[in-house]
DNA sequence: GACCAGGCACATC
DNA sequence: GATGTGCATGGT
């Protein structure tokens, strides 16, 4: 049904930007940490926080698990919301050590739906963060919906503004081939296009999708 | 100085 | 169920 349209959009984005090779991280654990740190935050700031953790030899489950929350908060300070994010990281690590002995690889064998529910039960991990972890750390066939995804697709009249997260996710997952590599690139390309052309209060001249049907008033979303 | 960033939980109506 | 608010640094 919507498959052709979605693949055409994918192709337009891919032609413009090429492969994005996400997630920009060194290993599974770092993907998870980055997914929490990047909540409502510029990735450049997250990189500074991750560098701090690495320089403190703290980018391991054990060292983060035993670290004082105040110390962790100071290390991740550049990523913003550092107190709340330190707690969120701790919540994940408590889960990891309680349920899986602190081994991220042991999540590999858990069925996707079950793992998703376990992640969502952790305070501080919402739908987008859980799905980022599932797709980018565990290669599961889960489409990550974020602000840019909604904004771009709403402006191009492809989704309803009142469609919630799960509706939009279903729209992509049911229309696209069940391919985690495709989901991976697609989301990354939408973020790239969004950063450049789909700001909240700006028109998007030059956007790779500008020839598609388009909502005229960019302030609408 | 204003605006924005790869959200989420919680309060209140 | 919808809507509003706090959380915070750093780049443009």
Distinctive features:
2 domains, DNA-binding, Endonuclease Iii, domain 2, 11 helices, mainly alpha, Endonuclease III, domain 1
Record the SSE blueprint:
Elements: H1 3-17, H2 28-37, H3 43-55, H4 61-66, H5 69-75, H6 82-100, H7 112-120, H8 127-138, H9 147-155, H10 165-175, H11 180-197
Helix pairs in contact: 1-11, 2-3, 2-8, 5-6, 7-8, 9-11
This protein binds a DNA duplex (13 and 12 nucleotides) through helix 2, helix 3, helix 6, helix 8 and helix 9.
Q: Separation of termini?
A: 26 Å
Helix content: 55-70%
How many structural domains in the coordinates? 2
Query: For this entry, what is the oligomeric state of its chains?
Result: single chain
> H/E series, N to C?
HHHHHHHHHHH
- Quick check: average pLDDT? 94
Characterization of this structure:
This protein is mostly helical. Helix content is 58%, strand content 0%. The protein folds into 2 domains: 3-21 and 143-220, Endonuclease Iii, domain 2; 28-138, Hypothetical protein, domain 2 (Endonuclease III, domain 1, Orthogonal Bundle). Helix 1 packs across helix 11 (180-197), helix 2 (28-37) crosses helix 3 and helix 9 crosses helix 11 (180-197). The model has no long low-confidence stretch (mean pLDDT 94). It binds a DNA duplex (13 and 12 nucleotides) through residues 34-36, 38-46, 48-49, 77-85, 88, 123-129, 132, 144, 146-149, 187-188, 190-191, 194-195, 199-201.
């Amino acid at each position: 049904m919507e498959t052709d349209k979605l693949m055409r959009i994918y192709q337009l984005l891919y032609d413009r930007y090429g492969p994005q090779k996400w997630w920009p991280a060194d290993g599974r654990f770092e993907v998870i940490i980055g997914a929490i740190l990047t909540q409502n935050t510029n990735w450049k700031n997250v990189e500074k926080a991750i560098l701090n953790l690495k320089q403190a030899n703290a980018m391991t489950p054990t060292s983060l698990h035993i670290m004082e929350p105040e110390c962790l908060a100071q290390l991740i300070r550049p990523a913003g919301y550092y107190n709340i994010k330190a707690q969120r990281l701790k919540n994940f690590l408590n889960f990891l050590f309680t349920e899986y002995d602190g081994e991220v690889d042991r999540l590999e064998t858990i069925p996707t739906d079950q793992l998703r529910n376990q992640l969502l039960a952790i305070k501080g991990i919402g739908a987008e963060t859980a799905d980022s972890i599932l797709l980018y750390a565990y290669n599961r066939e889960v489409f990550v919906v974020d602000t840019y995804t909604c904004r771009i697709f709403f402006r191009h009249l492809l989704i309803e503004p009142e469609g919630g997260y799960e509706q939009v996710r279903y729209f992509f997952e049911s229309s696209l081939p069940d391919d985690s590599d495709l989901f991976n690139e697609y989301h990354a390309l939408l973020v790239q296009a969004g950063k450049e052309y789909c700001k909240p209060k700006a028109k998007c001249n030059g956007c790779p999708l500008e020839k598609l049907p388009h909502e005229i008033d960019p302030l609408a979303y």
